[in-house]
Design brief:
Membrane topology: Multi-pass membrane protein
Radius of gyration: 51 Å
GO cellular component, one term: plasma membrane
Strand content: 15-25%
Keywords: Cell membrane, Kinase, Membrane, Phosphoprotein, Transferase, Transmembrane, Transmembrane helix
Pfam families: dCache_1 (PF02743), HAMP (PF00672), His_kinase (PF06580)
Protein name: Sensor histidine kinase
Number of strands: 17
Length: 588
């Protein structure tokens, strides 16, 4: 057994072993990604448990605010005062009734509100008669503005729309107070309704200091995290840091990570049950990646070393490994263009050399097969074409001589003499050795044939010809159209009693961006039922179909449309662009 060089497989195995491919992939990518995912998951779980406590604390203050908005229901005198004010009968009431109503709103209700939690800043009560009552937990000096459009505010409209249920209002300025500077608060608003009639009598809103949320957040969340609270509409309620609008939109989309100030952050969310506010903690992804940075550094070192080593080995072996393949590709391209003389010259005994030798053998065998098949096909096609053409000549002569017999019987000797002279000229044209002629030459043959028939039938038969100049050079088999014209004379015109017109035209048409040669032979004779045509009368038609398919295989069609007493239309269509065959081989 002869010695063989290392195979390509062995060379590739050695190459990738030297570059330490798998260790590099594991150290540089798999392990850091695994530990980053592990740390991220653990941090998300820890943050989620922290958010549980955060949402509970926020829920506590919201519950306190919500409880404040129900206080009027606990005091009948307060409800009575609101009822007579909203009904518009306060001003017409007697002094005692006014005293009771004012005492409930200016003394009873404020004294109850004084004992609220210190973070509850104040309570705003708005009876429907337009009067305003405000109790500030911090100082009695703060008063509500009388020139403020309360009923135009979103929180007022939402409270009315909620029809008695608590409405949670996000962080907003207390611009309805005479206070400088204006402070930001979050609130709970509610529509107060009469217990008996269920009619609205007032709107109450209780405010809490945003310091409450900020203090809760600072106690539970680390400094590098960002806490964002949004309402049910995705509007910002609170943020421990400035939040760009783009980041707020990403939070509404509920994606796993968001972009905050150009860096990716992982988001963990919890919902406050009563208000459906979403509390989201944004954790910088760098917190996780920093912990595995040493793995990335080690992997980068290994990857860089492997890359340098791989580059060196490929440069050392590229000429030996790649040059033979390039040579084989060039040879195959020449073969594809039809050049069978090119061969591959590869030295050696390995698989590449064997592949080159096999390619050379394949090219030689393919060359022999193509030459033999091409010659056989040419011989076969030429024999078929000559056989079909030979069928036309006796068929044509038979029909023409029958016409001469008719002229002789009618003793039209002068006409017969001219017809015989025309036939001799036509036969010289037909019996030439050419098998393919131009469409213009075929039209010339048909015109000579038409002259013969016109002398025979005089005014009873007329012809019309139209040939597009663009198709004059189109190559077709000789006598392709003459049998169709002859069929129109014999089967369409001769049996009918009225004068007939036979039209032959060829035009270049465009359909779906493709150029088509459309040839039509039409007569207004008797017509026929195509399915009922006897086989002996289809000699010319069958001959045309076969010769057309031999000359234009797959790119031509022949369609016959005829009906009794309606004439006959024969349409030949040739695609001039299909694979470039018709245009290149038949329009030269």
């Amino acid at each position: 057994m002869k010695n063989r060089a290392l195979s390509i497989r062995a060379k590739l195995m050695i190459l990738f072993s030297l570059t330490i491919l798998f260790p590099v992939l594991i150290i540089a990518y798999v392990l850091p990604a695994y530990y980053t995912k592990l740390i991220t998951t653990e941090t998300e779980k820890l943050t989620e448990s922290t958010l549980v406590g955060l949402t509970s604390n926020i829920q506590y203050y919201l519950d306190e605010l919500e409880r404040v908005t129900t206080i009027p229901y606990n005091y009948n005198e307060v409800m009575y005062a609101l009822k007579i004010r909203s009904a518009g009968i306060y001003k017409q009431s007697d002094s005692y009734t006014k005293y009771k109503a004012d005492y409930a709103l200016y003394n009873t209700l404020p004294s109850v509100l004084e004992n609220m939690h210190k973070e509850i800043l104040g309570t705003l009560l708005l009876p429907l008669d337009g009067s305003i009552f405000y109790k500030d937990s911090r100082s009695t000096l703060y008063k509500a503005r009388t020139d403020y459009a309360y009923q135009e505010q979103d929180w007022y409209k939402e409270a009315v729309k909620a029809n008695g249920k608590a409405t949670f209002v996000g962080v907003h300025p207390q611009d309805y107070l005479d206070i400088d500077p204006v402070q930001s608060v979050f609130s709970v608003a509610r529509l107060i309704r009469d217990m008996d009639s269920r009619k609205p009598i007032a709107v109450i809103m209780s405010d809490a200091d945003t310091v409450v949320i900020d203090r809760i957040v600072r106690q539970l969340i680390s400094n590098d995290s960002v806490v964002v609270i949004t309402d049910t509409n995705g509007q910002l309620v609170y943020a421990s840091s400035d939040i760009p609008s783009e980041t707020l939109k990403e939070l509404s989309a509920s994606s796993s990570t968001v972009n905050y100030r150009g860096e990716p952050y992982v988001q963990v969310s919890k919902t406050v049950p009563s208000s459906s506010w979403k509390v989201t903690s944004l954790i910088p992804q760098s917190r996780f990646t920093d912990k595995v940075r040493w793995m990335h550094t080690t992997g980068l070192i290994f990857a860089s070393g492997g890359l340098v080593l791989t580059l060196f080995l490929f440069l050392a072996y590229s000429r030996k490994l790649l040059t033979p393949f390039r040579e084989m590709i060039q040879v195959m391209r020449h073969v594809q263009r039809g050049d069978m003389t090119r061969r591959v010259d590869i030295q050696g005994t390995d698989e590449i050399a064997e592949l080159g030798s096999a390619l050379n053998r394949m090219i030689r065998q393919l060359d022999d097969m193509v030459i033999s098949e091409y010659r056989a096909k040419l011989r076969q096609q030429d024999a078929e074409m000559q056989a079909l053409q030979s069928q036309i000549k006796p068929h044509f002569l038979y029909n023409t001589l029958n016409g001469f017999i008719g002229l002789n019987r009618r003793r039209e000797h002068d006409t017969l003499d001219r017809a015989i002279r025309s036939l001799s000229g036509l036969l010289r044209y037909i019996l030439s050795s050419d098998t393919n002629i131009t469409l213009a030459e075929e039209f010339e043959i048909i015109r000579k044939y038409a002259d013969l028939q016109s002398m025979r039938f005089r005014d009873r038969l007329s012809f019309h010809f139209a040939l597009d100049e663009a198709l004059e050079g189109l190559k077709i088999p000789k006598l392709l159209l003459q049998p169709l014209v002859e069929n129109s004379v014999v089967h369409g015109f001769e049996p009918c009693e009225h004068p007939c017109l036979i039209e032959v035209n060829a035009a270049l048409q465009w359909e779906d961006g493709r150029s088509l040669a459309v040839i039509r032979v039409k007569d207004n004779g008797n017509g026929f039922e195509p399915a009922a045509l006897p086989s002996k009368d289809r000699v010319g038609m069958r001959n045309v179909e076969e010769r057309l398919s031999l000359s234009y295989p797959g790119v031509s069609t022949l369609h016959v449309h005829s009906a009794p007493d309606a004439g006959t239309l024969i349409t030949i269509t040739i695609d001039l662009q299909e694979e470039g065959y018709a245009h290149e081989h038949h329009c030269s």
